[in-house]
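go over this:
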Amino acid sequence: MTDLTTQKFDDVGECVEAAMRRVGPKIVLVIPLGMGKPIAFVNEIYRRAARDPGIDLTIITALSLNRPAGKTDLDRRLIGPMAERIWGDYPDLEYLKAVREKRLPHNIRIREFFVQAGAWLNVESTQQDYISSNYSHVVRDAIAMGANMLAQSISARGQGPREQFSLSSNPDLSLDMLDYFEAASAEGKAVVSVGSVNRRMPFMLGDAALSRPRFDLLLDHERYEHDPFCIPNAAIGDVEHALGLNAASLVRDGGTLQLGIGELGESIVYALQLRHQRNDVYRHVLGLTGVADRFRKTIEDVGGFGSLDRGIFANTEMFVDGFLELYRSGILSRRVYPHATLQRLLDDGVVTERPDEEMLVAFSRAGMSHIDLREFAALEKCGLFSPGTTHDGKYSLISPAGKRIEADLSDEKLRTRIANECLSRRLEGGHILHGAFMLGPRAFYSALRNLPEADRTAFNMTSVRWTNEPGGADHDLKMAQRRHGRFINTTMMVTGLGAAVSDALDSGQVVSGVGGQFNFVSQAHALPEARSILLVRSTRTSGGKTASNIVWNYGHVTVPRHMRDIVVTEYGIANLRGLTDRDCVAALLAVTDSRFQGELLSQAKTAGKIESSFEIPEAHRRNFPETIAQALDAMRRSGFFSTFPFGCDYTAEELVLQKALPKVLTSSAAMTSSLSNLLPARIALEDERIKPYLERLGFESPRDRTEKQLQQSVARAVAEVLGLL
């Protein structure tokens, strides 16, 4: 049900007009990152500012995403059908097109604190307007920049007086921004909040569910609804699978997990499922790669080889589809409750989720002599009490039958009465995930939309300030809930002394952004039992040249060396916390690709950071891609470690073409002049197995000489990918 104070609109122009009347021509608009952007509203306000230089528009956001369009004719032929199938009717952000085409008007600025990885390196306006800020500090920084308008896509269900609203994918910043806007409005400041209803967004509960709209303006018409932006599942190769296996061994049963999006996150999920459901296979493959023997002590100290029978809890800034997979597998099953003492007793196995007199005894032994009003309110949220039980605000509980019972837990007779007359049969309100925003494949959103309500209540979408920060008034509760936290993130490079390079190049050019990585690294150091785990591919290949991602030094770092903790490569685990610089170097050498160990060791010796007589142990000298490939190939013959273990949005032809088209761009120019190129192309054209790929791109009947050349180039490239030449 909408508040009487909320204005409802079915026309975007009228909604924008009303919003602008409230704040005037100087607009500082905050919109969510990723899929929560209200595109129709944002495009309309952008168009007005683009037409009228008297409007001063600043947009504060992150991760602005448009459907891929393709730079060449070949790209567009491949992407066109894929885009319709995968992204549906998701509309483009007009400001993003303007930024890409370098035609953004001077009166409009786009300030982003996180951008699509690698997509904006050479766009000056994006590089210059990037805000380097921890995710949990963005609300603070937006307010300091004068934020006076908030707009967001929201989900809705029900009709009329039973209509409910949810912040859906993005309570991350909006919960705190709405608090600020309500306080600012009460002080007479010119601010406005806008909710744009999109019923195709998943309806999420927890803190994301709104008891009232909380927005000043509500845009609600089906023509402004659209498919949310999705990220198709990525292919998982040998390196990613090996990284996932190693990282999964560091997760503690009964603990807490943070994951990110992409193939590395999915590889960890796959490895955790293997560890839990086929523990024999999991142990065997770790033996084949050599990780089980070489890093056994770290695995046993930090994580474990066993199955995850007690389950894990997710405290993550990003709710990715992998967590839903873990939930279905029975791994994401450790529930947390909003009461620190109760949480500790549950995790220590002192009590169960069935309230009884023994639970009251345990409370008393833990120091809770009375259930005062504050304790009652917290325990009521946990479902401890039967419906109808109240508190008199002083010393007593009032049972559903109206009987007054002094809430003295030190008295055996009173405990018995409370247990018999006031306690519920089972705790409720527990969560298996706290997440701040979501992004994932199309099937992920569909699964969330179709979740049974009992399952839906287990996922709490909440503020990024809650997920990413360990401190504050709730520090004791966060410590209890986030036991054995394993906060796993990825990084681009690691230096020889343990610093991590995750968001920018040494030139200062931003690749993506800090996001919440530093939040979770610092959280791992702040919480007892927690660890920060950074995953890095040991090498990268560009232009045919392979280089190490473990380098002696680099001109920019995201995580400084004094925050070093655990670094994981496909070759093993470097447990760096508390080590001397010398031992840090030795630990990183053990997980460096062996082709580059000598150079790194030499640099460390030159710097005097390791003794000149040091030699890399023999056990760590076989860090080659072939070692990983041989181990995984043996397992693939038994059906494990597929490229797309969680499904694929692409057709078989599209997967091949994605590998083939880069070859076309480098070979087509020489096609007309080189007989050695022409003959294989003509042979490929005569192969019936090539025809489906040519038909997919519309090259079955070339119309002119240019298309004929492209047809030949594509045929040869596809044949090479398929191993036919």
In short: The longest strand covers residues 149-157. Residues 170 and 437 are 5 Å apart (CA to CA).
